[in-house]
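Annex B, item 7. Sequence and structure tokens for protein A, then protein B.
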Amino acid sequence: MPETAGQTFIHTPTPGLPEFDYIKPASLTAASQFLAEHAGEARPFMGGTDVFVRMRDGFWTEKYIVNVKGLDGMNDVTFDPTTGLTIGASVNMNRLIASLEVKEHYPLLAEAAHTVASYQLRTRATLVGNICNASPAGDTIGACMVLDGTLHIHGVDGMRKEPLSTFFVGPGQTVLKPGDIATAITFPIPPAGYAAKYIKLGRNAIGDLAIVGVTALGFPDRGAPSGYRVRLALASVAPIPLVPTQAEAILAEKPITEATINEAAQAAMDASTPIDDVRGSARYRKLMVKNLTRRAVTQVWEQIRE
């Protein structure tokens, strides 16, 4: 356990949820106002798979839980063939997986969501909640990043948009301010001829937190010297979800061969800064970044060529 000034802080899980007030505002404006007025003691609630566990274990001690899941647009899944996909913040992962539009146009989202926890938990867990939790090991975050997702956020000053590339600032930390509520995430139409893959390494075949996760999305691009672009996102190997930009540059600049893929995989490994924990050592994680990046990019490259 961490030690400071000669003292050891030991966390003892509590047997049940602490007392709290349940707030159900009538509008996003009312919800944002309440959250801003009670900064530090109020938290928005959608699926609750993280909120209630952390409250039970004493990590979060908010006095107010604000139910925002029934507010305008939060439960919508819409697809427009010219503008793309919108997923409301309260849409659970099983509904996402079952969506015909997602399966046809954004199968990577369904693939990543299916690796999260169990079927029962996915009936409550949400894609936007998984993003706002800001865990470096979040399974769906990589897919959302390579698909160029943008969060829609309602705050005390109204609506704004935040690209995922600037959303994360640290483990469990985001740019969200008191009063902010993520209402939806949108994705543009994916690039023509694209292929994508998420490879997750966990201690169990399904449902476990990622020891390492690699997401790859590739597509033809005449503007790239290689004729192709590959977007990459790494999970559980840095304080925030990591985009290995040097690896992406290698794949854009050089003819895509086995040697080029190996070089990009090495660059992805070099960019990662994992830690030692109970699920794996830093050294093991770095080596698996190289291995899984090579596998993911190879599979994507083979699909693009076909």
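Protein B:
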Amino acid sequence: MGAAVFRSLKGFVKLAKFHIRDYFSVTRARDDTPRTWWRLEDLDAKVFRASVPAVAARAASIALFVLGTGLVAALIWTETADRGGDGPSPLVAGVQGAANSAAAKSWAELGIKPQGVIVVSASAHELYKDFRRIGYRLEDVRRGAGAVPRVFVKAMPKDIGKVSSIATRKAVFIKTMLPLVLRTNEELRAIRAKVLALTAREAKGQALAPAERSWLAAQYGRFGVSRNDRAGLLLRVDVIPPSLALAQGAEESGWGSSRFALEGRALFGQRTYAQSPGLVPVNRAAGARFKIKSFGHLLDGVWSYAQNLNTHPAYARFRALRARMRDQAGGPHGLDAYRLVEALDIYSERGADYVETIKTIIRVNDLRALDRARFSRALGGVDPA
């Protein structure tokens, strides 16, 4: 536990150093106000005296920023008895602890150690302010002028539904969910890259090491594809456009305020008929046996959602359309959520009305601009290709 806290605090120190360095760069602009920095030796005495207040203000700003990052670090989650024995998410085991799931194992075998911090928010307003303190601004991300920090929120703030400002509520939801979607896509992208590399070697007649053969076989099983069906596997190991995931999560969870989101950390309303943890809907029909699948971490729910779209037979049309888009665009950057959602009419009983709702959410909230979002390098990890 101590090592996990130390790594988390170390990440925030790196983030603080990154922003301080960026603050003093000649290209830095905050709140759309251009600013420049200068060297003291370039100033005469008169200009220097006139500039003292600005220097003091800037020093105070830096001090507040460092204090702010300290406050965010204070929210870092660690496993304690009063949290009901909740352990770290398997998908973020590289951040918080030992890996014990197939998802985490795949990262370990890939030799990738994603870094970041897991936080538990005190309230929606506090989380909103914490995001602002560390320089996480959606307007910057949309313009390509800012990156997304590796901050993974464990659970939605319990009071998010009580936030009076719709804009603030939406911002908290999007800022919370975007790193989770990017993290899930990061893993899918890494798995896909390794599958391509190994199968290319096989096609050339090159022998794979036993560990490589074992890993590749595990992926066929993990994504429900017949052994050696390379094309079928690549259809299923692919990313989900962030705009699509954000819009579906917003619709299914009421922008993070639903009972399933707050109690089950489930943002996509996925049903389960198994003995896995879940919540019984209040209005479930008599005789029905399904539950809404619940999770230990929001990130687990996002991964499950992606896995559902990537493997369930009902979404074969979605996967085929995504593959055609990828081929036409020469990569995943050409994936259009507006077109892809048309292949998800079966996702909801509302059918075509559901598709139009998702399109509206994407358009009204300018979510397609977030499809270009990338993780910040400040906390290390793998930079998406």
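Comment on protein B: Residues 1-74 form one domain.
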